[in-house]
Amino acid sequence: MKKYILSILSASMITVAGMAQTINFEEDNHKAISTYDYWVDSPFRTGQLAGQVQIVDNPAPETGVNETAKVLAFNRSRYGSHLYGARIDLKTPIQLSATPTYIHVLVKTPQRGSLALVGLGKRNDWPAQSAEVFQLVRVSTKVIPAGKWADAVFKISGNAAAQLHSLVIVPDTKSMLATDDDYVVYFDEIIHNDDAQPRFSTEVYPLSFDKDQKVTRTDRKLNSFAFSGNRGASANYNLSGLNGTIYIDQMDVKPVSMLIGEEITTAFNYTGDWMHRYVYLDKGNDGKFTPAYSNNMPTEASDLVAYSFLSENNAKTGYNSKGQSVQDGTNANPPAFTIPANMEPGFYRVRCKVDWNSDDAAGSPVQPIGGNGGFIVDLLANIHNENVNLSVMARMCVVTAADGGALPEQIPFGQEFSFNVEMDGDYEITGLVIKHGYNLTGEQYVCENRQWQEEKIALTEDGLITIPAEYIDGNVSIEIKFTNKSTTGFSSQQADELNVLPGKGNLTLQSNSALEYSIVNVIGIVMDKSVLSGQKVVTLPAGVYIVNGQKYLVR
Question: Where do the structural domains in the chain lie, given as residue ranges?
């Protein structure tokens, strides 16, 4: 048995003595396996079809996830109903109670979807009752991905006199048609314990529900939230039209800028009462939000940086992130938090959550966040210093500061930057490659958080060049592109293509045939759009513009 299974069992045995048990298919710790179908006229119940389930060699062992030699293979047949699955009869019945516990099943399936768990058993105070009685049917707490091992989790509870004598694992809860193909699903290591979280996750920043799960309550809604700082941070996120799902992805929205050492306040605009507010910052950029506390307050290392209420054992009196005593009915926003002085500049994931008394960034595993009318929003924060690093790669030219002096090694964050380029006599400038952000020599994405972007901008003249403030959002690396001097003002493009000549305060467009074009600035505003045949000069302020997908710099 794997080490991580043993560690989970040890923890569970301490917290709920005598409850935890594991069923695997290498040891004799189950009574029998068979095929089960709820449909009374199913060919698997009438005897027309049999088999479909067998213990086999693990077809896809994975280090740290599932290393066992044997697993349970089950053929999901098109002749089965929506509650058709692999039945495992237990040597030791599972005792139900009003307090929820959890059954975990390792599963590898070629079909993404929700699994179901059927519990068959009887009441121990009714001796004559059959052990085949339905005690519960539960759907997995999350949708299971296709093609890799995952931990399906089922929340179970029931009458304290009831016991489960058999478990049926249903690999797909939708009804199958006779035209659908059969497929094989593998199950392994079934655990019963008090842990609501999956044993492992291949996801970064996991959720306790499916990302596409729809909102079911109309009386509670997250309308917007905003950040403000004592050193200039300011961002407002309007969620109107986006709050049809519990999870709201704002990762492609412009990141909120936060200065290292700045005090940040978060304001939630939420319709509804008796819900609490939480703000997370993944300070380690490690793909998870880890809370840590001292004296009823988050430590400096804690990824849970601000919250309006937390209490133990659902006590009505708890604390906010300043350690102040508050009641569970609070609708207050969380206290301000400070960006630590020792944080490295970079783009970091921020999660804002409305939930009921839970520090779990995935959403409360005890009281489902969706049922309570909660929401989770992810976005990027640009954690920065007042200045950023600058480097320029220049060949066949001389590059100086705007005043003619040497280029600085650092420039102010978020401000446009100008410099001079003077090409050598036999060469002419063709453009710039601007790489901006953080981790410029490393991976572009760290735990799905973009760290840098690269812009390719066309130029036809050297001289004074101004980089827009939008590109000074981190460290900046500039490469000067050049070619041998040509005898024409336009680059050598095909006659039926659009030629663009950037100049001082304008773009000159030329086409020998009728071509559509659009000119868009770096923040997405359309400056001009039409059909051109011939030549046209478009007057524009200095800056970077995208013409039919190509970037040009207007001086």
Answer: 3-193, 221-384, 386-485, 489-555
What phi and psi, each to the nearest 5 degrees, are found at residue 6?
Answer: -60, -40
Nearest C-alpha neighbor of 102 from the set 366, 371, 374: 366
**Assigned CATH class of 3-193:** mainly beta
Residue 255 Cα distances to 288, 349, 449, angstroms: 19, 10, 11
What is the dihedral sign for C-alpha 94, 96, 97, 102?
positive
CB distance 295 to 281 below 8 Å: no
Q: Cα torsion for 153, 156, 19, 197, to the nearest 10°?
A: 30
Asked if residue 118 lies in contact with residue 168, where contact means CB atoms within 8 angstroms, the answer is yes
Q: What's phi and psi for 312, nearest 5 deg?
A: -90, 140
Instruction: Report which of 273, 262, 195, 295 is spatially closest to residue 281, judged by C-alpha positions.
Output: 262
- 221-384: which CATH architecture? Distorted Sandwich (2.70)
pLDDT-flagged residues of the chain (< 70): 1-19, 175-180, 486-496
**Which position has the token pair 């973009």?**
450
Instruction: State the DSSP H helix or E strand holding residue 9, giving kind and residue range, or none if neither.
Output: helix 3-15
Say how far apart CA 200 and CA 3 lie, in whole Å: 13
Question: Nearest-CA neighbor of 233 among 403, 413, 495, 471?
Answer: 413
- Tens of pLDDT, residue by residue over 115-156, are 999 999 999 899 899 999 999 999 998 888 888 899 999 999
The answer to whether 266 touches 333, Cβ cutoff 8 Å, is: yes
Q: What is the reported pLDDT for 139?
A: 92
Q: Give the model's pLDDT for residue 429.
A: 95
